[in-house]
């Protein structure tokens, strides 16, 4: 079953999938309609493939997914999912309300499978019933009611995720918020800014201080996080678009294709040509 809310004036869009075989994320294959997604697995463990990498999604877990991720599930009929665009609810603009940006969404740890204890599973199923009760209402209040329920979902999930996060268990929320802010800055600027200094300046820290804080908080080095984000996007372009290596190089802020090629080989695990060949072989299109 699929229920959908659309606002022709604001272009807001919100969709709820319940036992729907059509649930999937097109990512760069359909960048015109970007949707953030929450998926709750009501069934047994199953495989999910995100940007061509396969993971196991545990039973009774919630998985947040961002708009540019390409994803498919082994058994989507066993899932409950909510999808929304920026016009319906901007998680960046409302971060003071829900505190999820740079953690659940656009965070360093991904994918994040958040296990729900029995009481939390009941809460999610109760929310599902509340959403279902709201769908028949076709009045001027429906959009705001759906947003209110979505905020509850995000806050409940964020609380659970923080309770299960090693970082939030060992360090204060203020310190962990520095990581969230850094992750959001990287997400917003990685195509044009590749140096730690830029992000350190935006957080009013020196590069050395920022690196020391990340080490203290048991996080990857800031430089590594920036490199991984650029490589992730490069691989998305190689998988899902027809852009040439030269086009991708300039899209991701490199001065030359040669610089991009060296960067990809150093941080991506292979040369660009070897990556393309492996992809073609997997798709059965080689030769």
- By DSSP, the count of extended strands is 10
- Strand fraction: 15-25%
Helix and strand element order: EEEEEEEEEHEHHHHHHHHHH
Q: Kindly report the spatial arrangement of strands forming the biggest sheet.
A: 1-2-9-4-7-10
What structural category characterises the helix and strand content?
alpha+beta
Subunit arrangement of the protein? single chain
Let me know the average pLDDT.
Answer: 92
**Major sheet, described briefly?**
6 strands, antiparallel
Query: N- to C-terminal separation?
Result: 42 Å
Radius of gyration: 20 Å
The share of residues in helices is: 40-55%
> Shape, please?
globular
Number of helices: 11
Low-confidence stretches: none
Indicate the topology.
Elements: E1 2-6, E2 13-18, E3 25-26, E4 36-41, E5 46-50, E6 53-57, E7 61-65, E8 70-73, E9 79-84, H1 95-98, E10 114-115, H2 118-134, H3 142-164, H4 166-170, H5 173-189, H6 196-202, H7 207-216, H8 222-240, H9 245-251, H10 257-268, H11 272-283
Antiparallel strand pairs: 1-2, 2-9, 3-8, 4-7, 4-9, 5-6, 5-8, 7-10
Helix pairs in contact: 2-3, 5-8, 9-10
